[in-house]
Amino acid sequence: DGGITQSPKYLFRKEGQNVTLSCEQNLNHDAMYWYRQDPGQGLRLIYYSQIVNDFQKGDIAEGYSVSREKKESFPLTVTSAQKNPTAFYLCASSPGRDTQYFGPGTRLTVL
Amino acid sequence: QKEVEQNSGPLSVPEGAIASLNCTYSDRVSQSFFWYRQYSGKSPELIMSIYSNGDKEDGRFTAQLNKASQYVSLLIRDSQPSDSATYLCAVRGGTYKYIFGTGTRLKVLA
């Protein structure tokens, strides 16, 4: 069963905590992306990775960190430095410079 | 000026009518254009991709691209209540980055 999986579906964070969102794909795609979506707004790029062991900051990278140690995995850590992390987080992948496909998303709430 | 602009709507159309969704973009070197449908609380799903000027049809959906006017549109024929969703326009330039519009909310009235 091919596709992109994200876990958990819902995540609650206390003030000052770091949390890590998982993203895994078995589509053999080279590029992977993390977006944040706030209510009534479009998708804003946090980080993206074109190949293993390489990633670039997007438009709103402050307070976030990523790693790309394996082709199929691109975890996102929301650090305590991110002051307003409550949002819907979407992971996507693409086979190079082509269509992006999205995972089901993780909804993060700060308590 | 936003890089990708869409009217936020809501755009209301009666069932069976044609829904027309529009998107303009600012970067002239943009190469690839995508329409995604997003239901409330769900992730975006790809509807159409278009790369060259003209029309591209897939079932009830037609994407139209005019690079000279920096304009891309999505037509939905025979609109159904199940088409009610937010439609996101996305543009990719010469890099791996995709720029998304804020989306147009479509309501199909039964």
Using brief descriptors, characterize the structure shown.
heterodimer; A: 111 residues; mainly beta; 7-stranded mixed β-sheet; B: 110 residues; 5-stranded antiparallel β-sheet
Write up what this structure looks like.
The complex is a heterodimer of chains A (111) and B (110). Chain A has 111 residues and is mostly beta strands. In chain A, 0% of the residues lie in helices and 50% in strands. Chain A contains no helices and eleven strands. In chain A, strand 9 (87-94) and strand 10 (101-102) form a beta hairpin. The model of chain A has no long low-confidence stretch (mean pLDDT 92). The mean pLDDT of chain B is 93. In chain B, strand 4 and strand 5 form a beta hairpin. Chain A binds chain B through residues 31, 33, 35, 40-43, 45, 48, 50, 58, 90, 94, 97-105, and chain B through 4, 8, 32, 34, 36, 42-46, 49, 88, 90, 92, 96-98, 100-103.
Number of helices of chain A: 0
Largest beta-sheet details of chain A: 7 strands, mixed
Question: How would you classify the helix and strand content of chain B by structural class?
Answer: mainly beta
Using the CA coordinates, give the radius of gyration of chain A: 13 Å
Distance between the termini of chain A: 35 Å
Let me know the largest β-sheet of chain B.
6 strands, mixed
**Gyration radius of chain B, to the nearest Å?**
13 Å
Low-confidence runs of at least 5 consecutive residues of chain A? none
Round the mean pLDDT of chain B to the nearest integer and report it.
Answer: 93
How much beta of chain B, percentage-wise? over 45%
Large-scale geometry of chain B: globular
Number of strands of chain A: 11
Q: Could you tell me which chain pair has the largest interface and how many residues each side has? A: A-B, 22 and 21 residues
Helix proportion of chain A: under 10%
Number-wise, the strands of chain B total 11
Q: Please work out how many helical segments of chain B DSSP would assign.
A: 0
SS class of chain A = mainly beta
User: What sequence of helices (H) and strands (E) makes up the elements of chain B?
Assistant: EEEEEEEEEEE
Shape of chain A: globular
N-C termini distance of chain B: 36 Å
Oligomer: heterodimer
